[in-house]
Amino acid sequence: MKIWAVGGGKGGTGKSLIANGLATGLAERGAQVILLDADFGAPNQHTYCGLRKPACCLAQFFENRKPLEELALETTVAGFRLIPGNLNSANTDSITWAQKQKLFRHLRLLQADHVLLDLGAGSQYDTLDSFLLADIQIGVISPDALSVENFYLFLKNLKYRQLGSLLSATGLKEQAREIWKCRADLGIRDTRSYIAHLRARFPELGERLDRERERLFLRLVLNQVREFTQLEMGRAVASSVRKYFQLEAEFAGHLRFDKDLWQQFGPDQPAVRTGSTFTLRQGLEGVLACILDERTAHGH
Amino acid sequence: MATEEERRARRLLEVAADATLEEIHGAYQLMMRIHGRSGAAFAAPGMDEFSAEARQAILEQVQAAYNLLCALEPEARPAPLAAPAAAEQPAAATALGRAREAAGLTLDQVAAETNVRREYLGALEEERFEHLRLATVNVRGYLAAYVRAVGLDEDAVVPAYMMKYREWRSRQDP
Q1: Which CATH number fits domain B90-174: 3.40.190.10, 3.20.20.140, 1.10.260.40, 3.90.700.10?
Q2: How far is residue B174's CA from residue B167's CA, in Å, rounded to a whole number?
Q3: Which chain B residues touch A if contact means CB-CB below 8 Å?
Q4: In Å, how far is A254's CA from the nearest CA of chain B?
Q5: Hey, are the CB atoms on A148 and B152 less than 8 Å from each other?
Q6: Which pLDDT tens digit goes with each residue over B100-133?
Q7: Which positions ≥6 away from A46 have C-beta within 8 Å?
Q8: Superfamily of segment(s) A2-144+216-291
Q9: pTM for the full model?
Q10: ipTM exceeds 0.90
């Protein structure tokens, strides 16, 4: 079973649409798919799926100890089930550490070929940890400087989160904190030189960091493309991720801006399947084919 | 058997292990175009990672990687690209034209490289579709040749351009 995470930092770039479209595409290929709405603060996958009033939601897993599997609701797409996010529970924008660990344990037990996590915007620990947990990590950006900048911040926070977890695991957290305090004296200008310093000082940390980094492989999707001239941004961001953040990345494809899409949300049918235009579906198909390595990927 | 240095150079240029010289050349042009522009929307100049020093170091690494890979090829052409500063002064009106200029190529050179008539290349570049009343398959072929010659990503550029062209065509020939 593969866990997919769709994230990217900025809100409104189309993460939910793409998560939904990928789940639909996988199910149409005959796979058993569960999409979990992990946007704890603003869930709306149920509406994307045409389930206006879902019979259950994730809160029942946390609060009523209901098995995760039983919360997976059938959608109108055969093989595609949805675990809706919390709709009627207070304090929904984050979960506790214990809840998160429980959720991660139970995700692996779901009866599905693919489990997709639709993550919220921002760089909360829950979001970063869910992204790091995934086997297939998808970053969604739109072709504008705001979205791209937030995406880089998301990556930077991912790297910090990885480093922080490793420092805790190796008992080096306090020493690292002291080094950061004295960074000016040590000639540490930025995060890159900080990490380089830590690597040099603690070689075992560097080795573990390398192993963790190897698990990060970002598949970039460029959404809301209006002009073909914007397409190079997908390649450029993927290249920048490799060169400036030292993370493996590839440009998995793009989706054209669909001016009529907003009208499709709400009816009792999934928006991606019934309402959207041919070009949107074509874009999603291309992204999925690239991720599943069904054709030559961009950038390699 | 590729050396570690050679593998590193290919990783820097983001090309496959079996990339041809032409692909290496295109990748180099693309890297210089991407990372040579300081104010591009895909950079985040406010972040430490995108400092001027970091960008300069990347450009130098790309140049060194290209030089190394070219030196391994007996028929390698010298780098035709101007310094990154030149890539920051595009004069052409369209993205295709700017990409061509950033690659340091004239339309005549692209015509010689692709065996496509200069007039068609000019019309493609300036999106003068009325001068491209050819079979769609030919337009696509000419465009793909142009895109490869100037070092753009064929998969990224051609489908969207052709969609625009077909939309124009459908309005002309309903």
Answers
A1: 1.10.260.40
A2: 10
A3: 12, 14, 16, 30-31, 34-35, 40-44, 46-51, 54, 58, 94-95, 152-153, 155-157, 160-161, 163-164
A4: 8
A5: no
A6: 887 778 888 888 888 899 999 999 998 899 899 8
A7: A37, A52, A54, A57, A82, A84, A85, A87
A8: P-loop containing nucleotide triphosphate hydrolases (3.40.50.300)
A9: 0.76
A10: no
